Amino acid sequence: MSSETASLLNGKALAQKIQGELKTTVETLQGKIGRPPGLAVIMVGDNPASAVYVRNKEKACAKVGIASFGRHLPTETPQEEVEALIQQLNEDKRVDGILVQLPLPPHLDTVKLLHAIAPEKDADGLHPMNLGHLIRGEAGLRSCTPAGVMRLLEEYNLDVAGKHAVVVGRSILVGKPLALMLLEKNATVSIAHSRTPDLGEMTRQGDIIIAAVGKPNLITGEMVKPGCVAIDVGINRIITEEGASKLVGDFEFNSVSQVSGYITPVPGGVGPMTVAMLLQNTVLSYQSYDGES
Ligand code: NAD
């Protein structure tokens, strides 16, 4: 039995609050703009996890009044066809945000497709132009998962300025943009990754530890500082000793929650925040709609 001491950072509740605010914004703007905001999620192939994510995104869109222009293409769709679809959506005035659900089948060039999205419709914030704005500290569409982490910290008044933040993972999707966002808010940032020789030695220094690796129970209670903030981005499906399928993060929840001051649950922590930030990016693009494509 765990004697949990950490406070939970409830991403699910915050995501619902943000969605409620976005719904009001959409209702207010719709009369002026003359149409609802639109998000196009492009999925290629039949990855079952991706199908669940896409369905969740479209359901969330419906709740806030965003129209979905999703396209599901067969696995063997050639690169040129996906590029042509993106081009068509770039020019479609009803569409404010475009998202290519990753991972893509191996014959497709992911980077080339992400580059094809018009930067002002880049709802996932992964276009080099938007990543460039982030590195320069300029306004722009921010990557959804790291933006969701920052918003969650802000909601709980967990000021990062002057704190030592240890980011575990250096992907372009999560670790790298998150490190830049923490730096922008004046944290002292360290990044650990697969070649870091002693992970525990690094994580024990963190006032805030963000794990974005994809390895169940990688970080245990002995690896964290008492009272720290533990943010779990990892999503791992495991089979329990009883044979049940379960989602867990990269932190070993039972041991870490006895040492840390705050922790995000998996599920119900960062995951719902990612979806909320996707909707927020779409509404931001909608707000700056000027009637041109
Ligand atoms: P990725 O595979 O691209 O990157 C994993 C990173 O972990 C790499 O940078 C690697 O260097 C690092 N790493 C691997 N082994 C390590 C080790 N032993 N010690 C320290 N670092 C190590 O993955 P990603 O796309 O960044 O996703 C990471 C996790 O976050 C996955 O579980 C993914 O499902 C999850 N994820 C969740 C959300 C969400 O909304 N909650 C969004 C995106 C990704």
Structure description:
With about 290 residues, the protein is an alpha/beta fold. It folds into 2 domains: about 35-125, Rossmann fold, CATH 3.40.50; about 145-270, 3-Layer(aba) Sandwich (Rossmann fold), CATH 3.40.50.720. The protein is built from 10 helices and 12 strands. The protein has helices at about 10-35, 50-65, 80-90, 110-115, 130-135, 145-155, 175-185, 200-205, 255, 270-285, and strands at about 5-10, 40-45, 65-70, 70-75, 95-100, 165-170, 190, 210, 230, 235-240, 245-250, 260-265. The strands form 3 sheets. The chain has a 6-stranded parallel β-sheet. Strands 2, 3, 4 and 5 form a 4-stranded parallel β-sheet that branches. Strands 10-11 form a two-stranded antiparallel ribbon. β6 (about 165-170), α7 and β7 form a beta-alpha-beta unit. α1 (about 10-35) runs parallel beside α10, α2 crosses α10 (about 270-285) and α6 packs across α7. The protein is globular, with a radius of gyration of 19 Å. It starts with 6 loop residues before the first strand and ends in a 6-residue tail after the last helix.
